[in-house]
């Protein structure tokens, strides 16, 4: 059996405020760009590893600030999506991408089943096990749980400029996302995508369908254009905005269901 992570490699799930009092559970599938030492650089240049193809640029500090502001448990995934994409089902072609956007990833070509299993077992599985454990704990203790998956997106993809400042994503269940979308669109000078620049589906996504929909939890995925969260001040401002919106969306959602 191939072992992937060395003792000095970081764990596949990083927890912030694990006993936070907030009903929101923040998760970040693409928070980091680390590559296990055993994989070298996957044959990808350092300049490419600093781009969106490797991770969600700017989202980790935004989530950290949100966790502090809300007193919310957050679970971050520190490894590059080029190692394995933790928001993709295993059968998806982009689970372990051989080409990301237009960049070849030589270290992902001609992998053995054992090598693929190691990435699934040591990176993907522990991260999602941490999310499952927290949601199980809340259910067992009778605590509310709102799942919020935080992402960022590139302003230009394959030469096409994207006009949105942020996007609100969902799959079959838009009930909580609809409140978030409405509130974000009420922000001044904001262009907010409704399932843009991406959509959520069972074929291309894992976190929302599995942890949100299958459990019947209120949930939403948020995308922020990464050129808007590249500085500390912008990251803090977006964190405050998202916290304000999430708290109000929860209030509106609870009021619509008659929850005191």
Please specify the SSE layout and strand pairing.
Layout: E1 14-16, E2 24-28, H1 46-49, H2 59-70, E3 73-76, E4 99-100, E5 103-104, H3 113-141, E6 146-153, E7 156-157, E8 160-161, E9 166-169, H4 175-185, E10 192-194, H5 207-213, E11 219-225, H6 232-256
Parallel strand pairs: 2-3, 2-6, 6-11, 9-10
Antiparallel strand pairs: 1-3, 4-5, 7-8, 9-11
Helix pairs in contact: 2-6, 4-6
CA radius of gyration: 18 Å
Number of spatially distinct domains = 1
Strand order within the widest beta sheet? 1-3-2-6-11-9-10
Largest sheet properties: 7 strands, mixed
**Shape verdict:** globular
Structural class of the helices, strands and pairings? alpha/beta
CATH architecture: 3-Layer(aba) Sandwich
Please, what is the CATH homologous superfamily? Zn-dependent exopeptidases
Oligomer: single chain
Strand content: 15-25%
Q: How many beta-strand runs?
A: 11
Order of helices and strands: EEHHEEEHEEEEHEHEH
Mean pLDDT: 97
CATH topology, by name, is Aminopeptidase
- Poorly predicted ranges: none
Termini Cα gap: 52 Å
Helix content range:
25-40%
Overall CATH class: Alpha Beta
Structural write-up:
This protein is of the alpha/beta class and 260 residues long. It has one domain (14-255): Zn-dependent exopeptidases (Aminopeptidase), CATH 3.40.630.40. The protein is 34% helix and 16% strand. The protein is built from 6 helices and 11 strands. The chain is globular.
């Amino acid at each position: 059996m191939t072992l992937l992570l060395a003792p000095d490699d970081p764990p596949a799930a990083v927890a912030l405020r694990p006993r936070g009092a907030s009903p929101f559970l923040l998760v970040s599938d693409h928070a980091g760009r680390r590559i296990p030492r055993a994989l070298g650089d996957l044959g990808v240049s350092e300049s490419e590893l600093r781009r969106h193809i490797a991770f969600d640029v700017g989202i980790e500090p935004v989530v950290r600030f949100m966790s502090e502001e809300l007193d919310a448990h957050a679970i971050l995934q520190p490894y590059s999506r080029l190692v394995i994409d933790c928001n993709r089902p295993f059968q998806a072609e982009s689970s372990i991408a051989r080409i990301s956007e237009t960049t070849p990833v030589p270290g992902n070509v001609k992998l053995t089943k054992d090598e693929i299993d190691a990435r699934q077992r040591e990176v993907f599985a522990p991260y999602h096990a941490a999310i499952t454990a927290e949601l199980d704990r809340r259910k067992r203790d009778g605590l509310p749980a709102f799942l919020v998956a935080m992402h960022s997106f590139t302003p230009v993809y394959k030469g096409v400029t994207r006009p949105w400042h942020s996007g609100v994503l969902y799959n079959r269940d838009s009930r909580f996302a609809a409140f978030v979308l409405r509130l974000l669109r009420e922000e001044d000078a904001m262009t907010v995508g409704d399932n843009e620049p991406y959509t959520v589906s069972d074929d291309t996504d894992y976190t929302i369908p599995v942890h949100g929909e299958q459990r019947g939890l209120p949930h939403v995925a948020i995308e922020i254009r990464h050129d808007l969260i590249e500085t500390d001040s912008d990251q803090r401002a977006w964190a405050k905005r998202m916290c304000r919106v999430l708290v109000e969306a929860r209030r509106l959602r609870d009021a619509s269901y008659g929850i005191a």
